[in-house]
Structure formats: C-alpha cells, structure tokens
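Agenda item 2: guanosine-5'-triphosphate complex prediction
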Amino acid sequence: MLLGLIGKANVGKSTFFNSATDLNVQCGNYPFTTISANMGVTYARVECVCREFSVQDSPIHSLCIDGVRFIPIKLMDIAGLIPGASKGKGLGNKFLDDARQADALIHVVDAAASTDAEGRPVTPGTGDPAFDMQFVEEELDRWVASVLGREWGKLVRESSNQSIKLEHAISARLSGLSINDTQIVSTIGELGLSVGNAAEWSEQDLLKFCERLRAKSKPIVIAANKADLPSAGIGLSNIRHMRENAIACSSELELLLRRATRLKMIEYLPGDSSFKINEAATISTQQRHALHRANTFLVEYGSTGVQKIINKAIFDLLKLIVVYPVEDEIKLTDRRGNVLPDAHLLPASSTPIDLAEKIHADLAKGFMYAIDARSKMRLGADYKLKNNDVVKIVSATSSRR
Ligand SMILES: Nc1nc2c(ncn2[C@@H]2O[C@H](COP(=O)(O)OP(=O)(O)OP(=O)(O)O)[C@@H](O)[C@H]2O)c(=O)[nH]1
Ligand SMILES: [Mg+2]
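Presented output:
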C-alpha cells in the first residue's frame, strides 16, 4: 500500500513529507522544487493491543511507545502541478504517472492562499485555495480521460469485433488505476450510460465516467496546509465549503515539533494534542517562541493535523485493518521471545492466508489453519480477519522459516 502526496506547486507537499517521514528532502518557497518523486515511510498511529493483553511488548518493525503503536506505510512526495498539467504544462504527465502508483492520495492545499494558481508566492490571503483544489482534481480526471480517450474508438471496435467485454478492455487500458470490471460496469450504470452505444459517448460523457472511476480508484483526503498562517481562516472555510471533511494542518509545525523532540527539548508523539517541555534542556528564546506558536496551534486545532490525515487515508479511505501475527498464542511472542513483534496493515476482507503471504510466501503455501489469541479458537482459510486480531498461523512449512 502506498499513499501519495499531490497538489498544486508550492503548497507544502515536501514539508508534509519530511514532517511525516523524518526525512529531509528539498523544500523551497517557489514552484517545482520537487522534480522527481521522493519515497519514504510514515506510520499509522493506533492504540496497541498490549494494554488489553497486559503485556510489555517488544516490537521489531513497528514501534510501540506507552501503548501507542506506529505501523509503517509507504508515502510518496510527488512533483507539483499547475493548470494544464494533463496537457503537459509545468512538469505535466510526470506528476500524473507518479500519482498513478498510489492507492490513496493526500491532496495538499495552501489554505493560507499564499500562492497563485502556478505556485508563485503572493500576498497571503490573495490566492484562491478553492480554485486550486478544483483544478488539481480536474487535471487528474482529464489525464485519465486522455489515456482512455486516445484509444476510445479502438477499444469500442475491439470489444465488438473480438467479443472482449468493453469493461475488460477499459480495465486493461487503465491497469495502473487498479480498477476492476465490476466497478466499471457499476459506474456506467450510475451515469445512465450504456455499453451498447459506447461509440456514441460524448467527450463530456467520457470525462464524467473517468471522474467517477478516478474517485473510486484513487480516494482523496484534503490536507488544508499552512493553517498556522493568519490568512488561513477564510481559505479554510472556502475549502470546507467544498469538502467538509478537509483536515486543517501545519506541516511546518509538525516538522518543528519532531525536530524539537529529536533534540530532547520536548516530549511529543506524532498526533499528540500537546507536548511537554523538558526544562533541563537548553532552549533559546527563539526556540521557545517557535514552541509557543506550535502550542497555540495545538490548542486551537487539537493536533498539527499531519497524523490525523495519514490515519484518515489509511483507515477511512483505504479501510485497512491492523492485525498482529504471533508464533506463540499464549505468550504472544515470536520464536525469539519478542512480545507482539509486529503489526500489519491489511485490507478489510483479508484472510489468515493473506496475512501469512505478507509474512512469508512459504508460510502461506503450507497454510493449515490459524489460531485466534483471544478465544484460542481455530480460524479457517476463509476467516475474515478483524481489526486488532492477534493470530498465530499454523503452517506445514513454518518450521523451515
Ligand atoms: N507557514 C507554513 N509554511 C509552510 C507550511 N508547509 C510548507 N510551508 C512553506 O511552503 C513553501 C513550499 O514548501 P514545499 O514543501 O517545498 O512545497 P511543495 O508543495 O513540495 O512545492 P513543489 O515541490 O515546488 O511543488 C516552503 O517555503 C515551506 O516552508 C506550513 O504548514 N506552514
Ligand atoms: Mg516539493
């Protein structure tokens, strides 16, 4: 699973990326700072099951701090776009090609209206975040439409001559969007279009069709960034007018809090609603001032918004669940005695075989059954895993691992 950061040029995508991954890619107050996509790892924040089981865990790949578990997921920072990107303007299709790989998108918007449509800095409050938001999504839709439109006549002809179902021809052409035939058929139905007269679809029909397909295959959460700037008030309400579940955030303040945490000036976990200053640390007046700014933001918004946005993408858009595999269902350990060693993010309808597959292909090959650590009941191959399940996989091949 991969989350992608998209948005107009110069809205703070790379700052969001750095704040969420602890990496340090280039940021700058001008458009097209990022040219090639950056890849990193961020984390979902959940309440760990260690408290429920009253165990002291020792995770390996994920992280548990005082009962708060951080589970890794890949995050991609993508080049910015400007109006006309689907026709190649700015960095054009490069951006769109990268966006295609993501399973869900975080659309970063400059809520402070401090940049024009092409990402150039302007007096804060004079930009138009609502317009930006609309054009970015339209560019995505137009790009899908251009991929399909280029070959529409050919696809329709092939599907009637060679009796390939049209939905199949479409899903094959849009393979990067990971959209299935059923979704395509249901979208055609929702729009009152028909497969029978696909040759007659207007350009507008095709665009509407692509808009729906894109929304289904690349769900989006809006990150109303730069919400720390005074000019963000109006921008935020305009954004929320269009998308009421947009989340206000300040990537810059999240970055600041993480750096202060690394320097041991404060105690703070990503997603926290407050932080504690370590009075023994040496903190300059300027640093205290910056921390005060962050605190004011947390009091007003409840958090910096960065973790909330990542969690929304993982749990609301992708509807992933958290599952803890163990080798000993009594002690909840792996073979080395690590307690609750791992937590995995899996699609909601996953089975124990899917979990085994994620751990090791061999484990899945010899799958016999799984054991639920809570009930100690056996779970079959077709059991649908639930959020926070702790399971042992019993496999004929497990001893070879
Ligand atoms: N005040 C404030 N400034 C921010 C915030 N996030 C980013 N910025 C500033 O916005 C400018 C652009 O940041 P980047 O992260 O480079 O933006 P980008 O969207 O990656 O830009 P491109 O790669 O050029 O598309 C920089 O000057 C950042 O310091 C924020 O939350 N608050
Ligand atoms: Mg960038």
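Discussion summary: The longest strand covers residues 38-47.
Owner for follow-up: CH.
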